[in-house]
Amino acid sequence: MCSQVVTRFAPSPTGYLHIGGARTALFNWLYAKANGGKMLLRIEDTDRERSTDAAIDAIVAGLDWMGLSYDGDPISQHSRVERHRQVVDQLLADGNAYRCYCTPDELTEMREKARAEKRAPRYDGTWRDRDPSEAPAGVKPAIRLKAPQQGETILEDQVQGTVRFPNKDLDDMIIMRSDGNPTYNLAVVVDDHDMGVTVIMRGDDHLTNAARQSLVYKAMGWDIPTMAHIPLIHGPDGAKLSKRHGALGVEAYRDMGYLPEAMRNYLVRLGWAHGDDEVFSTEQMIEWFGFDGMNKAAARFDFKKLENINGIHMRNADDNALYEQFIALLPFVEDGQSMLDLIDDAKKKQIMMAMPSVKERAKTLLDLKAGLAFLFDTRPLALEEKAAKLLSDDARAMLGDLIPRFEQLTDWTIDSTDALVRTFAEEKELKLGKVAQPLRAALTGRSTSPGIFDVLLVLGKDESIARLKDQIS
């Protein structure tokens, strides 16, 4: 019987959950879901100087916003340091590790000699086979893994294929520092083994680490998990992803009005594909996700493509769900007042009436907010510069002629206001836009808005007429 699939996401709590980390978490989450398994969260907080509680909170909040749930409680790597030391003691007892008494100066001299001889700066094994009785007094040793010196370490990777590492290039890595603290490559192996991790999916910048870590697995007689090293994310120019490309925390994308389902959709395509499909539901991603769709090449981050995918998800979103995400992005405090305070039942009804029209033009929740802003404006409206230009003296006079017709309209619908305005334009021998544009400016204070007849419907007869009268008085 096959064991349950267990993946893990193991960030370092030294900052926010950046976009590359979010993609790694997403891949692990999808693989676990696709295979009926579970994803664990391990906080790799052994760097005590740089690890912060605020960063841990930001990572957890980022995963929560992305909708990437993990199983059980987060595991602190630092809290397991005694277990790591136990494994080091076992490796020493079995002859698979040894104490190294080299001083920092000796190690520096070793590296400089290697460079002078045009060799890779590797540890030369000075203490590998020396008798411990030769240990200098008062020097605390580091512990090194006794790695094979000939042949190759071969890594069978689900994405990169067969990867070979000459053992002469791996040397005897330190697994515990002279201060008694385990190193990353030791702690990761022990934690993954003890947590029952069966699949390790991470960036391909960890390939060399994977080779080194496999030596620890072998030395302990443990099964090596399935490895899958995914391509890194680059900027549109092919350079390493930086803040100017979009290497921001996921909370920045939340604040920019992106939907978590759109972020999942966009990120899954950075290194994985399902044919030519571009837009996925989460259910489809779970159904289709696997190693066979992964690409070896680095993926390129593209804000424009993200925005387009977000727009598609907004148009496809249920209006009620979109409303909930819209208000979650609030409060936007304006003029000392929270917009949340302005949303009563009547205002919510207006928002829901406007939602189908507004979301068709919106690519982000911020666009949605801008499209709905006319609902929150107080009379008399402050006109944007372009809107003010549309309300010339002739335009105001025209609106003055239009108001009585609106007042006489008994059935206030999109169709009835549409018919009224079109008839009015024909009678005045004007193109529809010559009427609709000043009408939009007077009703919203802006030169762009949802469809003008949607605006009339949502505002209602009384409010629409009142806003028009404000502008001609």
Automatic annotation (TrEMBL):
A motif ('HIGH' region) lies at residues 11-21. Keywords: Aminoacyl-tRNA synthetase, ATP-binding, Cytoplasm, Ligase, Nucleotide-binding, Protein biosynthesis. The gene is gltX. Catalyzes the attachment of glutamate to tRNA(Glu) in a two-step reaction: glutamate is first activated by ATP to form Glu-AMP and then transferred to the acceptor end of tRNA(Glu). ATP binds at residue 243. Residues 4-307 form the Glutamyl/glutaminyl-tRNA synthetase class Ib catalytic domain. This is Glutamate--tRNA ligase. PANTHER family: GLUTAMATE--TRNA LIGASE, GLUTAMATE--TRNA LIGASE, MITOCHONDRIAL-RELATED. One of its GO terms (biological process) is glutamyl-tRNA aminoacylation.
